[in-house]
Amino acid sequence: MLGLWLRGTEGARFWSSRLPDLKERGVEDIFIVCVDGLSGFPEAIRAAFPQTKVQLCIAHLVRAAPKYVMDKDSDEVVTDLKAIYRSATVLEAEGALERSAAKWDSKHPTISKQWRRSGVRSSRCSSSHERSARRLIRPVRSNR
User: Fold this and answer.
1) Which of 28, 38, 98, 144 has an alpha carbon 20 to 30 Å from 54's alpha carbon atom?
2) CB 43 within 8 A of CB 15
3) Under DSSP, is residue 36 helix (H, G, I), strand (E, B) or coil?
4) Helix (H/G/I), strand (E/B), else coil: 54
5) Cα separation values, 72 from 69, 77, 78, Å
6) How far apart are CA 32 and CA 49, in angstroms?
7) CA 49, CA 27: separation in Å to the nearest integer?
C-alpha cells in the first residue's frame, strides 16, 4: 500500500496534492489508472505522471447505464455493454460499441457517448504494449 488518506470529501484539488507526494516517495511511473469519473482527476494524474493511461472504470460505466435507460430495456442494454468490455481486441470492442449504439442511440444516446468519451475499448487488450505487460504481470501465489 502506498498510502491511506482520510478526508470528508474528495476532489481533484486533493489528488493534485497527493500524486506529487507519491512521486517524491519514489513512484516513477504509473502504467494505467482506473478512475471513477471524479471531475479533474485525470488531469491531476497526467500532471504528475504524464505517460499514464487514464481509463474510466468499466464497473462505473455499466452501473451508470441504467440511469439513462427505461427499466424494461435495462437488462438488455447491460448485456450489450458486456460485449464491449469482454472483447478480445480493440477492433472487436469497437464493433460491439457500434452495434450497441446502432441499437440504442435512438432511445438512449447518452450511453454510447459516455463509453466513447471514457476511452474504454476493451478490458482485455487495447494495445500491443498492454498485451505485453499483461503477459509479464501475473498473480503471485503463496505456497501457504
Assistant:
1) 98
2) no
3) coil
4) strand
5) 8, 10, 12
6) 10
7) 9
Quote the CA–CA distance of 131 and 31 in Å, as a whole number: 13
**Beta carbons within 8 Å of 68's beta carbon, 6+ residues apart:** 108, 110, 111
| DSSP-derived 3-state class of residue 121 | coil
Does residue 127 carry a pLDDT above 80?
A: no
Average pLDDT over residues 1-25: 81
Segment (H or E) for 104: helix 90-104
pLDDT score, position 103: 94
Residue 36 phi/psi, 5-degree rounding, is: -100, 5
Does 59 score more than 70 pLDDT?
yes
Match 469497437 to its residue by C-alpha cell. 94
